[in-house]
Amino acid sequence: MSTKALAMETEESVLNELQDRSWRWHRDAAIALLLTILAFAVRLNHVDSYSLSEDEVAKWAAVQEYRHGNFVGVNSEHPMMLKVLAWVSLTAGARWNRLASLQSWPTMDPEGWLRFPNVLFGAATTAILFLFCRRLIGFAGSSAASFFWAVSPLAVALNRLAKEETPLTFFTLLACYFYCRAQQADSDFSERRWYDLSAVGFGLGLASQYILHLLGLNALAWFLAGRMGLNRKPSQFSYRRFFLVMFITFVVVNPVILSPANFNAIVHWLHHGGVRHSGYDFDGRLYMNFPSRLFAGVPWFYYLWLVLVKTPIPILTAVIAGSLLLLRDRRTLASCFFLSLGVVQFVGLSVSGAKWIRYSLPLLPFLYLAGGYAVQQTLKAAKGKVLSQAFVGLAAVILFGWPLLELQSWAPYHSFYLNSIGGEKQNITRYFAMDEVSEFDTREVAQKVCPFAPAAATVATARPASMAYYLQACGRADLQIVPLYDTHYAPRGGDLIVLEPSRRFFETQRFFDTLENSGMPHRDIRVGPVLASTIYLFDSSVRGPKSGKEELTLTQLRGAPTGFDNDDQGPASTNTIRFGLSDLTRRLTQ
Q1: 390 pLDDT more than 80
Q2: Are 520 and 539 in contact (CB under 8 A)?
Q3: Nearest-CA neighbor of 402 among 587, 152, 179, 585?
Q4: Tens digits of per-residue pLDDT, 137-179?
Q5: What gap in Å lies between CA 369 and CA 373, rounded to an integer?
Q6: What separation in angstroms does the CA of 312 have from each of 146, 302, 394, 422?
Q7: Pairing label, strands 496-499, 530-537
Q8: Staple 179 to which of 198, 320, 502, 526, CB 3.0 to 4.6 Å?
Q9: CA angle, corner 297, sides to 296 and 300, nearest 5?
Q10: CA terminus-to-terminus distance, the chain
């Protein structure tokens, strides 16, 4: 072959490689974009349909303080980044709603705008998970993993709350992706740039939530990779530069950390300071829910059961199969990340005595990575086999169609989702009611109370902050809100007591023991498929229950003076109050 022919063949080969690389890049970009749009759509759908939780009201209150220039001592146990983003979102949302009302465009309630930043973070995590998985496994597996994140009801439900775990997960995954790019870089300059970006990502993650262990788990994954010889070359990593960039990013985004008052508030919070109620209702039994209790708190299998019952069966099958494969194929980067950020993180969460559903969010991408790995290996095994390919095609229809149908059938109450292992709709709120229901119906309760509650009446609820928000919104700032978990609270005649099964604590158990069988006037509040709350009108003249335990509890509840204190009121005022109570009783029992 002549030199000219060889040159032409080499040029053609390079051109083909460039074209192939360009095609793969455009294909990957298109899939990542489509999956991100899907994730955004399902997370945005009716995101304003349920009321704010206690934690979300704290974010809303912080935004109001920020608007007045007060940044110190405001919801200080959490970083300010999510609250600043909520401020921007609420401001932009108010302007959008004004414009949209003139143009007949869709609008969204403030609840939705408060949660909108997390909708964006949750959707964007889909693309980052796809890009990260592409560094570890093939195209089909990466697509499957990001699809699982996009449509899994558990991930969708958690991304629809204004809580810090969603941006924490996004920035941690982004930082892990940049770190992986640095480890696989082909030049020192490129490597340093990716390491700097990774440090920025971890800094933003820390500015989302004060959690450091995910940084250590990423380091553990690369330690395992190094022991197995999976690094291309010795790393040019500089601890000093990395942590300096990370610290600068953290302080720039979260400058309130420099305030001694805010720092003291964080330390106070870490030592459970200000905790006024305790207990987590898991499968009908109350458990203490503090990290220090370890195995003495919520049962260790909480997260195992959570994944088993809140993951669509096809996705769960892929996750289990992929987990077994990655435990076998340990000499892969995918296995290193699964072992570190999957298995080790899962064990750490299970050992801790404090357990909430939202704590599982940073774990989910690495479980879906395992599911994607199973899909990738299945396609690899079926390659070239006609019968196997037909089976794979049928499995793909089930794998991708089933979760979409279930997601639609449970919308917009994704947090209630249970698969057939968990009992589906027959067991709604049986296992995780404290996470699933606690924010859903405060607005509806307030709408029932506002029209007929007597002036200056007392409303006792385990959601005092959110109840105060919605009662003020309907013009009843005169009502007195009392935390139901306040151990010093003793009901008086005419008090409205709101029992929320999803807020059953050790401190509120006495009210459940007494009021549910007392025969006092009440009104049930349903939201979607569940009985979310019951409003009781406390009447000290109602005969108590028959059992000794309940009789004792009712006697304790009657410890305060019965009825209203009318010492400073004339006859007319007394009649007005009696009429209000009579009207309230009639409406509650209708």
Answers
A1: no
A2: yes
A3: 152
A4: 999 999 999 999 999 999 999 999 999 999 999 999 999 999 9
A5: 6
A6: 15, 18, 17, 11
A7: antiparallel
A8: 198
A9: 90
A10: 96
Check: CB of residue 155 under 8 Å from CB of residue 140.
no
Rg of the chain over all Cα atoms, to the nearest angstrom? 28
The helix/strand/coil state of 497 is: strand
Can you tell me whether residue 461 is helix, strand or coil? strand
Q: What is the pTM of this model?
A: 0.88
pLDDT band at 302 (very low <50, low <70, confident <90, very high): very high
370: left (phi over 0), alpha (psi -120 to 50) or beta: alpha
| Confidence at residue 434, expressed as pLDDT on a 0 to 100 scale | 86
User: Hey, what are 57's tokens?
Assistant: 């009201």
Strand-pair partners of 527: 530
- Residues contacting residue 18 through CB under 8 Å, at least 6 positions apart: none
Phi, psi dihedrals of residue 298, rounded to the nearest 5°: -60, 140
Q: Residue 324: what residue type?
A: L
Kindly state the tokens that stand for 427.
Answer: 């067991």
pLDDT-based confidence at residue 7 (cuts at 50, 70, 90): low
| Strands laid side by side in the 480-483 sheet | 480-483, 458-461, 496-499, 530-537, 522-527
Query: What's the angle, vertex CA 417, arms to CA 413 and CA 418, rounded to 5?
Result: 160
Q: Can you tell me the distance from the alpha carbon of 127 to that of 134, in angstroms, rounded to the nearest whole number?
A: 11
Nearest of 378, 409, 411 to residue 395 by alpha carbon: 378
Residue 405 has pLDDT above 70, yes or no: yes
List CB contacts of 482: < 8 A, sequence separation 6 or more.
458, 459, 460, 461, 464, 489, 495
Q: HSE of 405 in the Cβ direction (CA atoms, 13 Å)?
A: 9
**Cα separation of 331 and 221, whole Å?**
12
Note whether 110 and 64 are within 8 A (CB).
Answer: no
How high is the pLDDT of residue 45? 94
Q: Quick check: 514 and 506 in contact, CB under 8 A?
A: no
Rounded to an integer, what distance in angstroms lies between the CA atom of residue 389 and that of residue 378?
A: 10
Question: Distance between CA 360 and CA 306 in Å, rounded?
Answer: 9
Q: How far apart are CA 301 and CA 286, in angstroms?
A: 15
Which tokens go with 99? Answer: 């414009």
**Under 8 Å between Cβ of 514 and 553:** yes
Q: How far apart are CA 198 and CA 173, in angstroms?
A: 10
